[in-house]
Amino acid sequence: MVKQIDFSTLMASSVHDMKNIIAAVSQAYESLVAQLPPELQQSAEVRLIERESLRLDGMLVQLLGMYKFEHGQLSLQSEYCRVDDLFEDLHNRHAELLQYRQVELRIELDDPDLEGFFDRNLIVTVLDNALGNALNHCRSAICLHARAGEGGIVLSLCDDGPGYPEAMLGPVRERDASGIDRSSGSTGLGLYFAASIVAMHDQPGCEAGLELKNGGSLGGACLQVSLPLPSLF
Amino acid sequence: MRKLPEVAGPYFFGVHAGWDTQMMINFSRMRFLVVDDFSEFRSSIRGILGLLAVQQIDMAANGEEVLELCRRNRYDVILHDYNLGKGASGQQILERLHAERLLSPHCIFIMVTAENTQAMVLAALECEPDDYLSKPFSKVALQTRLERMVRRKRVLAPVLTAVEAGDNEQVIQACQAIEAEDQRHAVLCQRYKADALFLLGRYTELEKMLEQQVRSRPANWNVQRLARLWLQQGRYQQLTPLLDAAMRQFPLMPELYDIQAQMYANENDLKSMVRALQQAVALSPNTLRRQISLAQHAWLAGEKDIAAHAIRQCWENGRYSIAFDVELLWQLSSILLTNNRGRAAEELQNWLKLLERRDMQTPLLLPAIRLLRLILEEQKQGDSIQAQEVADRICMQLDGYTAVTLLQLGDWLQQLGQAAAARCWQACADRHEAVTGVPEQLEMRLGGYSAGVAIRRTQKMREAVALQLNEQPEQAAGLLHQLLQEQPKQIALNMAAIQLYIGHAAGDTAAMTSLKECLQRIGRLSPLEPDALEFSRLNNPLEKRAW
């Protein structure tokens, strides 16, 4: 008898393999690029391969994350993380693309030693996706900002693009953020995933929050994530 | 200068004067060890490290190779895969490296994990690597992490050197120097300072510091340390609300349930203790010491199925751990023998065959296994069996068994009509009566033995420990001395006395002599005992570090 496997498990397992394939290809590619003459290292094709493989990887991470989330396998490993480290990770991942697209990434911390309490890998995934989006829609600048909020920290990622469509604005909890928008072609996966991840960071008596705004420091789209700090007493 | 911030336009950091002031890290002189069972992954990491200009890279595919290489070389960075296929896991190898003191605190140990299941992540975290990284990772991800860890270890270097030298005063001074100058790394010093204060016996200062930390920045390390301190100080009224709040706040911290289990043990509430251990095991099943503790206490609580299940888990997940010992399999066989029918009988035969394999045999367990075989023969034949020789051999090495094994050995010997049964139980009374659940078991077996008296003695021992942790060492020493007069071979009592003497042993010959006497009175310890590692370390003070 053939064992029945549900489609999502099959998909998750394939996604897992795909992620490994991309990683192997990317590593080989990095070694190869290092051997190219400098002018070729800066070519449009090189940047395209980098950008698209980063996007592909990001989408697979989200798909896999959603599968785990739906099956209760995504456990939160929160720890204290310095925000400058978090932003440095983000910057490093996108450095070459930012440079190629001539986009300025501003980083502003109200306090240089600001730290939050969150799952580093998961929050990087959320911001990574948002940064990827901002790169697609901005004109010339993106700003990452962090400040201390009430009982936690508030991170925001703003750009100088046209902003979010009116219908998307406001706070997002995971239950609201699903469904395919046929007019924009967006699957909504990124936002659904982001909202789910942020909601996992709720603390007893203090909710984490994800909010989409327009305006912000650069006048365009602005994604804001608030993450509460733990408190025992 | 670091090359990364070359993005068009100026960087604006607000008040942050961060990355561009930090020197780029030169990896070319550092020695790396890459551990993975897949050669493809090893070469892929070698490729990435090559791009980072790393020149010295050693490779290992399994735990034995890692230990061998670490005995010979001192590594700056170890990138270790968690799941090495059939053999020991990354967690078990890291435990072994710590136990054999093969890992300098200056070394950066990064656990690499392929899948992020909760059991694996918690197991990886419980053995405290410096960092962990999910597979697959890119050059940029590895470089960012490595640079951060190298910077961190460089700033902490004076602290780590003092830790390595065991100079606790110096640890505190070095921490204070960093706190005064470097806000960024000050927070990392706190736990080193806390451990140094504990080892120096400055418990009041430690408590104050931990309480302040737990209030302002509750984290895994400070909550656990404060909870353990209050537990040992006997401050249950403060401990209970702390544990409740911490369990709500940090639902994935198995150590909190360990502490709760110990609190129940101190209150002689065995059933609740077993329940707390089960909760800890459900969160993080791969940590062997916890599974062993669950197996022992579940058996003592009469929960034989839970005990058997925990031992099977030990075998499945932990047989390569330094904490594993075949005595567990003997206990499992003994449990199965009490219900020797159907599948249990089949399973029993498999374990006995395994225990009798040449590579599994130990002199300690041979007569114990023979005893189980004699019982099986007796069940088959229905006649009485000659067991005198086996009984004599068991009685010659009673010090090597745990409480549960001694109780079970006595039961089987009694079934064969051997007077040696009482000797096993007496040895258990002499050495293990502080193990929660043991006095009640002994009262059922040993004529004239009172569980109540034993439990009161154990309470007094805990009072002595509490006195010591409330900085009243003289009173603690007096009480322990009095208790040791009554029960000189008691393991827990001697270990408590050792903890008291150890702080003074360096410059005080009387304390050193007392400490040695305690070690001699314990004599021998089963590797399954919670204190086994500490005991063997104390017994071999001349065992040098690899460098």
Question: Can you walk through the features of this model?
Answer:
The complex is a heterodimer of chains A (233) and B (547). Chain A has helices spanning 7-35, 38-41, 44-70, 83-101, 120-137, 189-200, and strands spanning 79-82, 104-109, 115-118, 141-149, 152-159, 170-172, 209-214, 221-228. Chain A has 233 residues and is of the alpha+beta class. The relative contact order of chain A is 0.13. Chain A has a six-stranded mixed sheet. Chain A has two domains: 7-70; 79-228, Heat Shock Protein 90 (2-Layer Sandwich), CATH 3.30.565.10. The radius of gyration of chain A is 19 Å and the shape is globular. Chain A is 47% helix and 21% strand. Chain B folds into five domains: 21-162, Rossmann fold; 169-234, no CATH class; 252-316, Tetratricopeptide repeat domain (Serine Threonine Protein Phosphatase 5, Tetratricopeptide repeat, Alpha Horseshoe), CATH 1.25.40; 325-449; 454-539, Alpha Horseshoe (Serine Threonine Protein Phosphatase 5, Tetratricopeptide repeat), CATH 1.25.40. Chain B contains 26 helices and five strands. Chain B has helices spanning 39-51, 63-72, 90-99, 118-126, 139-165, 168-181, 183-199, 203-216, 220-233, 236-249, 254-266, 270-283, 288-300, 304-318, 327-337, 342-355, 366-381, 388-395, 403-415, 420-432, 438-445, 451-469, 473-486, 491-502, 509-522, 532-539; strands spanning 31-35, 56-60, 77-81, 108-113, 131-134. In chain B, helix 3 links the parallel strand 3 (77-81) and strand 4 (108-113). In chain B, helix 21 packs antiparallel against helix 22 (451-469). Chain B is globular, with a radius of gyration of 26 Å.
Strand content of chain A: 15-25%
The CATH superfamily title of the largest domain in chain A: Histidine kinase-like ATPase, C-terminal domain
The number of distinct β-strands of chain B equals: 5
Strand order of the largest sheet of chain B: 2-1-3-4-5
Assembly type of the shown chains?
heterodimer
The CATH C-level name of the largest domain in chain A is: Alpha Beta
What average pLDDT do the residues of chain A reach?
A: 86
Number of domain units of chain B: 5
State the helix count of chain B: 26
Predict the CATH topology of the largest domain in chain A: Heat Shock Protein 90
Report how far the terminal alpha carbons of chain A are from each other.
57 Å
Shape of chain B: globular
Class by SSE composition of chain B: mainly alpha
Strand tally of chain A is 8
CATH topology type of the largest domain in chain B = Rossmann fold
CATH architecture of the largest domain in chain A: 2-Layer Sandwich
**Helix coverage percent of residues of chain B?**
55-70%
